Amino acid sequence: ISAQDFAVFRQTYEQQVLYLTGQIQYQQQKLTLVESTASNALQVAAVAQQQAMANEQQFKRQRKAHKKQRQSEENKSPQSSEEATEEVKPEAASMPATPVSLLSESVDEHQDSGQKNNKNTPPPPGPGDIPKMKTNEKKKILKKVDNVSGKKLHIQDLLSRAKEFGEMIPSYIHEHVKSVATECESMMSTAQQCVNDMTGDAKAMQDDLDAVANKAGEAAARLKSQLDQAHTMVGKKGVCTVGGSPPQPNDWASLVPCLGSFPRRVHVSMPCCGIDGCGTALQMMSVPFKANNVMDVEARYGPYLEAHLPGCAIHVGHHGDVNSINIDELERPVDLLCSGPPCPPWAGNGSHGGQMDMRAEVFLSVVRMVIALAKSGELKAAILENARGICNKLPGQHESFLDQMLFILRQEVPEFHWDKVELSACDYLLAQQRTRIFLRGLRTTIAAGIPAPLSPFGRRDLSEFLDHGLEPIDTSTLTEVMRKNLEDADKDVKKMVKAGTYKEGDIIVIPLDRSTGKVYQRKCTVNIVPTLTTTNRYLFITSVNKGNSKKGFHRFLHPSDP
């Protein structure tokens, strides 16, 4: 073969070897984890065995003591020869008892001590009989009903307090908490009816009451967290006073070209959906669509996604693990697949493990999903989004992970066009530092190539998004750590102003949950917010003012800031 063909073959072979090496290391990590789990299981089994032996010894001692007690009672009040014979025979024929048999014998003997004659004891209820409730079971159920009632009253109190904050508390949180309160009322009514009739499965009823009480506690904690956040953001406790008219978000529908009419709804698959940026964009562009395969491992996204995508099956928590989904289990059909696999393997703040990071397996699972759907003939387009670091090469690599994926997709799915583009949110009228890489694919029968992304819309200053009517926060309401972090940040801001880096009127964004000298150090931004996530909710904004003039902004980023 020619030297050029040999070079291409060698490059392809090296890429395959590198990929397989990564897979081997990943499997070795999994094997280490399994071995660790097995070791822990053996330790637990050993402890359980020791406990079982201790229980067996305890049962033997209890049986021996009980036998002595019966013998002493028989000596005091001798029984008839017939009754004595009936009691001696089982002991003579008994086998060495196991812990389980000892426990059953102890229970039987305890029942016999309370019933001199058990010949008239009624048989246990049959499958069609409704079990009768005992008095002690009734007391336990009533106690649990009181617990659920207290949880419900707590929820109602939080809901009444949430009215003061209006739209600051998300509507899906309101609806979820209200539904839990209704469920508590229904369960309490059912339990009370069973108690009044003294019928029903007491154990199952207690379990149901415990479950609804736990659910109510979680709902109350979620709502209280929102209330605490609202209190902190406005710098007050009790009443929220929002002055002025908050700015309006971008009108995206007026910024995109007319897409025309659609003969039917577009079926959009959303693995690793997050908070559903894809669905939000489609809704703003008035595209009729039906979402399927809505999956994410973050269970806390569930209530929001259910409210945002009504009528769609939502898979969150362990049910939303893309790695555990088989291809033949996917919801069909799929016209467009839009996914944002986890970015920590390639993020700037991560461990920079790249494809060696176990979490990178999710990206590979989504790629396999794309290949399978494309080969089935129904997939028409695909978009995969991730951090800019996915284009970086690891030491010893000839290509980045994304370039390797592009090579595989072009080889495996030649019926698609494939490319990658880099876009920044700040170029599209958003005052946010968010640069992302988009891997795009389009079926060749639809167009001769993938259309270029929309041209930048322009830039907007951060002050255009902020609600100028909100008052500065009372720093005494902050935690001690946050006050310390704010004081340190203020000192740094003053140094920057003195050096001429910051000027009067600039708006500085400070993450108050970050400290100097830590692993994740504090990084302030000027006139733009950092990448917004569901975890960096402690972003503090402050204005640069000379002299003793009053600060224009000195508060947390607020939900009314669009």
Automatic annotation (TrEMBL):
Alphabetically ordered keywords of this record: Methyltransferase, S-adenosyl-L-methionine, Transferase
InterPro entries: C5-MTase (IPR050750), C5_MeTfrase (IPR001525), SAM-dependent_MTases_sf (IPR029063)
Pfam families linked to this entry: DNA_methylase (PF00145)
Molecular function as annotated in GO: methyltransferase activity
Keyword Transmembrane helix listed: no
Region of interest (Disordered), residue spans: 55-134
Keyword Methyltransferase: yes
SUPFAM superfamilies membership: S-adenosyl-L-methionine-dependent methyltransferases
Gene3D superfamilies xrefs: Vaccinia Virus protein VP39
One GO BP: methylation
Basic residues compositional bias, start-end: 60-69
Name of the protein in its database record: Modification methylase Sau96I (M.Sau96I) (Cytosine-specific methyltransferase Sau96I)
Organism: Durusdinium trenchii
